[in-house]
Write a structure and sequence with these properties.
0% strand; single chain
Length: 404
Protein backbone atom coordinates (compact mmCIF):
# COMPACT_ATOMS: atom_id res chain seq x y z
CA UNK A 1 0.00 0.00 0.00
CA UNK A 2 1.40 3.41 -0.99
CA UNK A 3 0.33 5.35 2.07
CA UNK A 4 1.54 8.76 0.88
CA UNK A 5 -0.51 8.62 -2.30
CA UNK A 6 -3.55 7.30 -0.47
CA UNK A 7 -3.41 9.94 2.26
CA UNK A 8 -3.12 12.84 -0.16
CA UNK A 9 -5.93 11.54 -2.37
CA UNK A 10 -8.11 11.06 0.70
CA UNK A 11 -7.56 14.71 1.58
CA UNK A 12 -8.67 15.84 -1.86
CA UNK A 13 -11.71 13.57 -1.54
CA UNK A 14 -12.70 15.35 1.68
CA UNK A 15 -12.65 18.67 -0.14
CA UNK A 16 -14.43 17.47 -3.28
CA UNK A 17 -17.33 15.82 -1.47
CA UNK A 18 -17.65 18.78 0.87
CA UNK A 19 -19.29 20.47 -2.11
CA UNK A 20 -21.47 17.48 -2.84
CA UNK A 21 -22.74 17.60 0.75
CA UNK A 22 -23.23 21.36 0.50
CA UNK A 23 -26.15 20.90 -1.92
CA UNK A 24 -28.65 19.37 0.56
CA UNK A 25 -27.30 21.62 3.31
CA UNK A 26 -28.17 24.71 1.24
CA UNK A 27 -31.73 23.63 0.43
CA UNK A 28 -33.38 24.72 3.72
CA UNK A 29 -31.78 28.18 3.37
CA UNK A 30 -32.97 28.48 -0.22
CA UNK A 31 -36.49 27.53 0.84
CA UNK A 32 -36.58 29.96 3.77
CA UNK A 33 -34.79 32.93 2.18
CA UNK A 34 -35.96 32.59 -1.42
CA UNK A 35 -39.26 30.83 -0.73
CA UNK A 36 -38.60 27.94 -3.11
CA UNK A 37 -41.04 25.01 -3.11
CA UNK A 38 -40.14 21.35 -2.65
CA UNK A 39 -40.34 20.98 -6.41
CA UNK A 40 -37.95 23.89 -6.95
CA UNK A 41 -35.30 22.65 -4.51
CA UNK A 42 -35.66 19.14 -5.92
CA UNK A 43 -34.82 20.63 -9.31
CA UNK A 44 -31.62 22.04 -7.82
CA UNK A 45 -30.77 18.60 -6.43
CA UNK A 46 -31.39 17.23 -9.93
CA UNK A 47 -29.03 19.79 -11.45
CA UNK A 48 -26.20 18.87 -9.07
CA UNK A 49 -26.75 15.13 -8.67
CA UNK A 50 -28.63 14.00 -11.76
CA UNK A 51 -26.34 15.69 -14.26
CA UNK A 52 -23.32 14.35 -12.40
CA UNK A 53 -24.62 10.80 -12.82
CA UNK A 54 -24.90 11.31 -16.58
CA UNK A 55 -21.46 12.79 -17.21
CA UNK A 56 -19.37 10.87 -14.65
CA UNK A 57 -19.18 7.69 -16.77
CA UNK A 58 -17.92 9.85 -19.66
CA UNK A 59 -15.08 11.08 -17.48
CA UNK A 60 -14.42 7.43 -16.61
CA UNK A 61 -14.02 6.63 -20.32
CA UNK A 62 -11.56 9.51 -20.69
CA UNK A 63 -9.49 8.25 -17.77
CA UNK A 64 -9.41 4.71 -19.19
CA UNK A 65 -8.10 5.94 -22.55
CA UNK A 66 -5.39 8.23 -21.19
CA UNK A 67 -4.03 9.25 -17.80
CA UNK A 68 -5.69 12.52 -16.79
CA UNK A 69 -4.66 13.29 -13.23
CA UNK A 70 -5.32 17.00 -13.77
CA UNK A 71 -9.04 16.20 -13.53
CA UNK A 72 -8.62 15.85 -9.76
CA UNK A 73 -7.89 19.53 -8.94
CA UNK A 74 -10.01 20.74 -11.86
CA UNK A 75 -12.92 18.75 -10.46
CA UNK A 76 -12.98 20.09 -6.92
CA UNK A 77 -12.27 23.67 -8.07
CA UNK A 78 -15.21 23.52 -10.50
CA UNK A 79 -17.42 22.07 -7.77
CA UNK A 80 -16.48 24.92 -5.43
CA UNK A 81 -17.23 27.52 -8.10
CA UNK A 82 -20.61 25.94 -8.77
CA UNK A 83 -21.70 25.78 -5.12
CA UNK A 84 -20.55 29.34 -4.44
CA UNK A 85 -22.33 30.61 -7.52
CA UNK A 86 -25.54 28.74 -6.69
CA UNK A 87 -25.64 30.25 -3.20
CA UNK A 88 -24.99 33.78 -4.44
CA UNK A 89 -27.09 33.77 -7.61
CA UNK A 90 -30.06 36.15 -7.65
CA UNK A 91 -32.44 34.04 -9.75
CA UNK A 92 -33.63 30.46 -9.91
CA UNK A 93 -32.26 29.76 -13.44
CA UNK A 94 -28.79 30.95 -12.40
CA UNK A 95 -28.97 28.91 -9.20
CA UNK A 96 -29.87 25.84 -11.25
CA UNK A 97 -27.04 26.40 -13.75
CA UNK A 98 -24.42 26.86 -11.04
CA UNK A 99 -25.66 23.72 -9.26
CA UNK A 100 -25.24 21.87 -12.57
CA UNK A 101 -21.67 23.21 -12.83
CA UNK A 102 -20.96 21.85 -9.35
CA UNK A 103 -22.26 18.45 -10.44
CA UNK A 104 -19.93 18.42 -13.43
CA UNK A 105 -16.94 19.21 -11.22
CA UNK A 106 -17.86 16.47 -8.75
CA UNK A 107 -18.21 14.03 -11.64
CA UNK A 108 -14.86 14.98 -13.17
CA UNK A 109 -13.00 14.32 -9.92
CA UNK A 110 -14.13 10.82 -9.01
CA UNK A 111 -12.91 8.41 -11.77
CA UNK A 112 -9.33 9.68 -11.81
CA UNK A 113 -9.07 9.88 -8.03
CA UNK A 114 -10.68 6.48 -7.46
CA UNK A 115 -8.35 4.81 -9.95
CA UNK A 116 -5.42 6.36 -8.15
CA UNK A 117 -6.69 5.12 -4.80
CA UNK A 118 -7.11 1.57 -6.14
CA UNK A 119 -3.59 1.66 -7.62
CA UNK A 120 -2.23 2.82 -4.27
CA UNK A 121 -4.17 0.28 -2.24
CA UNK A 122 -4.28 -2.79 -4.50
CA UNK A 123 -6.66 -5.50 -3.32
CA UNK A 124 -7.12 -4.02 0.16
CA UNK A 125 -10.75 -3.17 0.91
CA UNK A 126 -9.52 -1.10 3.85
CA UNK A 127 -7.45 1.09 1.53
CA UNK A 128 -10.47 1.86 -0.63
CA UNK A 129 -12.56 2.42 2.50
CA UNK A 130 -10.00 4.95 3.76
CA UNK A 131 -10.20 6.84 0.48
CA UNK A 132 -13.99 6.58 0.43
CA UNK A 133 -14.33 7.81 3.99
CA UNK A 134 -12.65 11.02 2.91
CA UNK A 135 -15.68 11.75 0.78
CA UNK A 136 -18.04 10.84 3.60
CA UNK A 137 -16.16 13.09 6.02
CA UNK A 138 -16.34 15.93 3.51
CA UNK A 139 -20.08 15.49 3.17
CA UNK A 140 -20.42 15.34 6.97
CA UNK A 141 -18.62 18.66 7.36
CA UNK A 142 -20.78 20.39 4.77
CA UNK A 143 -23.92 21.04 6.91
CA UNK A 144 -21.90 22.58 9.72
CA UNK A 145 -19.84 24.71 7.32
CA UNK A 146 -22.86 25.86 5.32
CA UNK A 147 -24.83 26.62 8.49
CA UNK A 148 -21.90 28.58 9.95
CA UNK A 149 -21.23 30.61 6.79
CA UNK A 150 -24.79 31.22 5.62
CA UNK A 151 -26.14 31.60 9.15
CA UNK A 152 -23.49 34.23 9.94
CA UNK A 153 -23.18 36.11 6.65
CA UNK A 154 -26.25 35.13 4.66
CA UNK A 155 -26.22 33.66 1.17
CA UNK A 156 -24.19 36.67 0.00
CA UNK A 157 -21.24 35.52 2.12
CA UNK A 158 -21.15 32.09 0.53
CA UNK A 159 -17.94 32.92 -1.36
CA UNK A 160 -16.22 31.71 1.82
CA UNK A 161 -17.29 28.17 0.92
CA UNK A 162 -14.68 28.20 -1.87
CA UNK A 163 -11.75 28.57 0.55
CA UNK A 164 -11.15 24.82 1.16
CA UNK A 165 -10.88 24.13 -2.58
CA UNK A 166 -8.49 27.03 -3.16
CA UNK A 167 -6.22 25.94 -0.30
CA UNK A 168 -6.17 22.34 -1.51
CA UNK A 169 -5.39 23.43 -5.06
CA UNK A 170 -2.40 25.39 -3.77
CA UNK A 171 -1.21 22.33 -1.83
CA UNK A 172 -1.64 20.18 -4.96
CA UNK A 173 0.57 22.53 -6.99
CA UNK A 174 3.13 23.03 -4.20
CA UNK A 175 3.66 19.35 -3.47
CA UNK A 176 4.17 18.64 -7.18
CA UNK A 177 6.99 21.16 -7.41
CA UNK A 178 8.48 19.91 -4.12
CA UNK A 179 8.58 16.31 -5.36
CA UNK A 180 10.26 17.33 -8.61
CA UNK A 181 12.80 19.40 -6.66
CA UNK A 182 13.64 16.31 -4.60
CA UNK A 183 14.23 14.36 -7.81
CA UNK A 184 11.13 12.19 -7.35
CA UNK A 185 9.11 11.16 -10.42
CA UNK A 186 5.64 9.86 -9.54
CA UNK A 187 4.73 6.56 -11.15
CA UNK A 188 2.00 6.75 -13.79
CA UNK A 189 1.18 3.25 -14.97
CA UNK A 190 -0.97 3.09 -18.08
CA UNK A 191 -4.49 1.72 -18.13
CA UNK A 192 -3.78 0.48 -21.61
CA UNK A 193 -1.00 -1.71 -20.26
CA UNK A 194 -3.37 -3.04 -17.58
CA UNK A 195 -5.94 -3.81 -20.28
CA UNK A 196 -3.38 -5.59 -22.45
CA UNK A 197 -2.11 -7.83 -19.68
CA UNK A 198 -5.44 -8.72 -18.09
CA UNK A 199 -6.41 -12.38 -18.45
CA UNK A 200 -9.94 -11.77 -17.19
CA UNK A 201 -12.74 -10.55 -19.44
CA UNK A 202 -15.30 -8.00 -18.36
CA UNK A 203 -18.35 -9.55 -16.72
CA UNK A 204 -21.00 -7.13 -17.95
CA UNK A 205 -23.93 -9.19 -16.68
CA UNK A 206 -22.63 -9.14 -13.11
CA UNK A 207 -21.76 -5.48 -13.46
CA UNK A 208 -25.31 -4.69 -14.63
CA UNK A 209 -26.70 -6.37 -11.51
CA UNK A 210 -24.33 -4.36 -9.34
CA UNK A 211 -25.38 -1.18 -11.15
CA UNK A 212 -29.04 -1.95 -10.48
CA UNK A 213 -28.22 -2.52 -6.82
CA UNK A 214 -26.39 0.79 -6.69
CA UNK A 215 -29.35 2.64 -8.23
CA UNK A 216 -31.59 1.19 -5.51
CA UNK A 217 -29.00 2.46 -2.99
CA UNK A 218 -28.79 5.91 -4.51
CA UNK A 219 -32.45 6.92 -4.64
CA UNK A 220 -33.08 6.39 -0.89
CA UNK A 221 -29.74 7.90 0.12
CA UNK A 222 -30.06 11.07 -1.98
CA UNK A 223 -33.71 11.46 -0.93
CA UNK A 224 -32.95 11.12 2.77
CA UNK A 225 -29.97 13.51 2.67
CA UNK A 226 -32.05 16.07 0.75
CA UNK A 227 -35.16 15.80 2.94
CA UNK A 228 -33.98 14.74 6.40
CA UNK A 229 -33.49 18.25 7.76
CA UNK A 230 -36.81 19.37 6.25
CA UNK A 231 -38.54 16.28 7.66
CA UNK A 232 -37.29 17.03 11.18
CA UNK A 233 -38.23 20.70 10.92
CA UNK A 234 -41.65 20.40 9.30
CA UNK A 235 -43.00 17.01 10.39
CA UNK A 236 -41.39 16.71 13.83
CA UNK A 237 -41.17 20.45 14.67
CA UNK A 238 -37.42 20.50 15.27
CA UNK A 239 -35.28 23.58 14.79
CA UNK A 240 -33.01 24.39 11.84
CA UNK A 241 -30.00 23.59 14.01
CA UNK A 242 -31.40 20.18 14.97
CA UNK A 243 -32.05 19.41 11.31
CA UNK A 244 -28.47 20.29 10.41
CA UNK A 245 -27.21 18.22 13.35
CA UNK A 246 -29.17 15.19 12.18
CA UNK A 247 -27.69 15.50 8.70
CA UNK A 248 -24.19 15.79 10.16
CA UNK A 249 -24.73 12.73 12.37
CA UNK A 250 -25.98 10.75 9.38
CA UNK A 251 -22.86 11.51 7.35
CA UNK A 252 -20.51 10.91 10.29
CA UNK A 253 -22.17 7.54 10.81
CA UNK A 254 -21.58 6.96 7.10
CA UNK A 255 -17.88 7.59 7.64
CA UNK A 256 -17.80 5.00 10.42
CA UNK A 257 -19.72 2.59 8.22
CA UNK A 258 -17.26 3.06 5.37
CA UNK A 259 -14.29 2.20 7.60
CA UNK A 260 -16.11 -0.74 9.16
CA UNK A 261 -17.09 -2.01 5.72
CA UNK A 262 -13.46 -1.99 4.57
CA UNK A 263 -12.34 -3.84 7.70
CA UNK A 264 -15.08 -6.44 7.32
CA UNK A 265 -14.27 -6.83 3.64
CA UNK A 266 -10.60 -7.61 4.30
CA UNK A 267 -11.45 -9.93 7.19
CA UNK A 268 -14.55 -11.77 5.96
CA UNK A 269 -14.75 -11.01 2.23
CA UNK A 270 -16.42 -8.02 0.64
CA UNK A 271 -19.82 -9.68 0.19
CA UNK A 272 -20.27 -9.65 3.98
CA UNK A 273 -20.43 -5.83 4.35
CA UNK A 274 -22.44 -5.50 1.13
CA UNK A 275 -25.22 -7.84 2.24
CA UNK A 276 -25.16 -6.79 5.88
CA UNK A 277 -25.40 -3.13 4.96
CA UNK A 278 -28.56 -3.54 2.92
CA UNK A 279 -30.14 -5.82 5.52
CA UNK A 280 -29.66 -3.20 8.26
CA UNK A 281 -30.52 -0.17 6.13
CA UNK A 282 -34.15 -1.18 5.54
CA UNK A 283 -35.31 -1.06 9.21
CA UNK A 284 -33.16 2.04 9.81
CA UNK A 285 -34.91 3.94 7.02
CA UNK A 286 -38.28 2.78 8.36
CA UNK A 287 -37.36 4.35 11.70
CA UNK A 288 -36.64 7.67 9.96
CA UNK A 289 -39.78 7.62 7.81
CA UNK A 290 -42.23 6.75 10.60
CA UNK A 291 -40.46 8.37 13.56
CA UNK A 292 -42.86 9.73 16.20
CA UNK A 293 -40.26 12.13 17.60
CA UNK A 294 -37.04 13.96 16.77
CA UNK A 295 -35.01 11.57 18.95
CA UNK A 296 -36.23 8.50 17.08
CA UNK A 297 -35.61 10.16 13.71
CA UNK A 298 -32.06 11.08 14.68
CA UNK A 299 -31.33 7.57 15.96
CA UNK A 300 -32.73 6.14 12.75
CA UNK A 301 -30.61 8.56 10.70
CA UNK A 302 -27.43 7.41 12.49
CA UNK A 303 -28.28 3.75 11.93
CA UNK A 304 -29.18 4.49 8.30
CA UNK A 305 -25.87 6.26 7.61
CA UNK A 306 -23.86 3.44 9.20
CA UNK A 307 -25.71 0.69 7.31
CA UNK A 308 -25.77 2.43 3.92
CA UNK A 309 -22.00 2.91 3.85
CA UNK A 310 -20.97 -0.58 4.90
CA UNK A 311 -21.17 -1.68 1.22
CA UNK A 312 -19.74 1.51 -0.28
CA UNK A 313 -16.01 0.77 -0.72
CA UNK A 314 -16.50 -2.97 -1.44
CA UNK A 315 -18.97 -2.09 -4.20
CA UNK A 316 -16.38 0.14 -5.90
CA UNK A 317 -13.64 -2.51 -5.93
CA UNK A 318 -16.15 -5.18 -6.95
CA UNK A 319 -17.18 -3.03 -9.93
CA UNK A 320 -13.53 -2.63 -10.96
CA UNK A 321 -13.00 -6.38 -10.74
CA UNK A 322 -16.11 -7.03 -12.84
CA UNK A 323 -14.57 -4.72 -15.49
CA UNK A 324 -10.81 -5.22 -14.94
CA UNK A 325 -9.75 -3.60 -18.23
CA UNK A 326 -11.94 -0.52 -17.69
CA UNK A 327 -11.39 0.65 -14.10
CA UNK A 328 -12.23 4.27 -14.87
CA UNK A 329 -15.51 3.31 -16.50
CA UNK A 330 -16.33 0.96 -13.62
CA UNK A 331 -15.64 3.55 -10.92
CA UNK A 332 -17.31 6.32 -12.94
CA UNK A 333 -20.48 4.33 -13.38
CA UNK A 334 -20.53 2.98 -9.83
CA UNK A 335 -19.79 6.27 -8.09
CA UNK A 336 -21.95 8.19 -10.55
CA UNK A 337 -24.88 5.91 -9.85
CA UNK A 338 -24.20 5.72 -6.12
CA UNK A 339 -23.90 9.41 -5.38
CA UNK A 340 -25.85 11.03 -8.19
CA UNK A 341 -28.53 9.07 -9.99
CA UNK A 342 -30.95 9.56 -7.11
CA UNK A 343 -31.05 13.19 -8.18
CA UNK A 344 -32.80 12.14 -11.39
CA UNK A 345 -35.82 11.12 -9.33
CA UNK A 346 -35.69 14.28 -7.20
CA UNK A 347 -38.16 16.46 -9.17
CA UNK A 348 -40.86 13.76 -9.18
CA UNK A 349 -40.28 13.07 -5.49
CA UNK A 350 -40.38 16.80 -4.78
CA UNK A 351 -43.78 17.13 -6.47
CA UNK A 352 -45.00 14.14 -4.47
CA UNK A 353 -43.77 15.82 -1.26
CA UNK A 354 -45.58 19.04 -2.17
CA UNK A 355 -48.79 17.10 -2.71
CA UNK A 356 -48.67 14.43 0.01
CA UNK A 357 -45.86 15.31 2.45
CA UNK A 358 -42.38 14.11 3.19
CA UNK A 359 -43.42 10.95 5.03
CA UNK A 360 -45.05 9.62 1.86
CA UNK A 361 -41.84 10.15 -0.09
CA UNK A 362 -39.73 8.46 2.59
CA UNK A 363 -42.11 5.49 2.64
CA UNK A 364 -41.83 5.19 -1.15
CA UNK A 365 -38.03 5.14 -1.16
CA UNK A 366 -38.14 2.56 1.61
CA UNK A 367 -39.71 0.25 -0.98
CA UNK A 368 -36.93 1.08 -3.44
CA UNK A 369 -34.33 0.16 -0.82
CA UNK A 370 -36.08 -3.18 -0.25
CA UNK A 371 -35.63 -3.90 -3.97
CA UNK A 372 -31.94 -3.07 -3.58
CA UNK A 373 -31.69 -5.55 -0.74
CA UNK A 374 -33.04 -8.33 -2.96
CA UNK A 375 -30.56 -7.43 -5.69
CA UNK A 376 -27.62 -7.25 -3.26
CA UNK A 377 -28.31 -10.74 -1.98
CA UNK A 378 -27.83 -12.06 -5.53
CA UNK A 379 -24.40 -10.47 -6.11
CA UNK A 380 -21.36 -12.75 -6.33
CA UNK A 381 -17.73 -11.94 -5.64
CA UNK A 382 -14.92 -11.88 -8.22
CA UNK A 383 -11.31 -11.82 -7.02
CA UNK A 384 -8.49 -10.89 -9.41
CA UNK A 385 -4.73 -11.31 -8.96
CA UNK A 386 -3.02 -8.41 -7.17
CA UNK A 387 -1.14 -7.35 -10.32
CA UNK A 388 -4.35 -6.86 -12.28
CA UNK A 389 -6.23 -5.16 -9.46
CA UNK A 390 -3.51 -2.52 -9.25
CA UNK A 391 -3.44 -1.74 -12.96
CA UNK A 392 -5.40 1.48 -12.62
CA UNK A 393 -3.52 4.76 -13.26
CA UNK A 394 -2.03 6.87 -10.49
CA UNK A 395 -2.67 10.64 -10.60
CA UNK A 396 0.19 12.71 -11.98
CA UNK A 397 0.85 14.57 -8.77
CA UNK A 398 -0.19 12.18 -6.06
CA UNK A 399 2.70 11.96 -3.60
CA UNK A 400 4.52 8.79 -2.70
CA UNK A 401 6.65 8.38 0.41
CA UNK A 402 9.94 10.17 -0.17
CA UNK A 403 13.04 9.36 1.79
CA UNK A 404 14.91 12.34 3.20
Amino acid sequence: MKRGQLAFLTGTHIVNDLYQGAVPALLPFLMSQRHYSYTAVSGIALAASGLSSVVQPLFGLLVDRRHRGWLIPAGFLTAAAGITGAAMADSYPLTWLFAALAGIGIAAYHPAATNGARAAGGQSQRAMSLFSVGGTLGASLAPALVTLVVGSYGLGGSWLLAVPALVTALLWAAQGRWLRHRGHTPATPSTARGAATSTHRADWRAFARLAATTVAWSIPYVTVTSMLALHIQRDLHGSTGIGATALTLLTLAGAAGTLLGGWLGDRHGRMTPIRTGYLLAVPALAAVAFAPSVAVAMAGAVAFGLAMFLPFAPQVTLAQDYLPTRPGTASGLTLGLAMSVGGLAAPALGRLADAHGLRTVLALVLGVLAVGLGSALRLRDRVLPEAEAGAAPVPERAPEPVSP
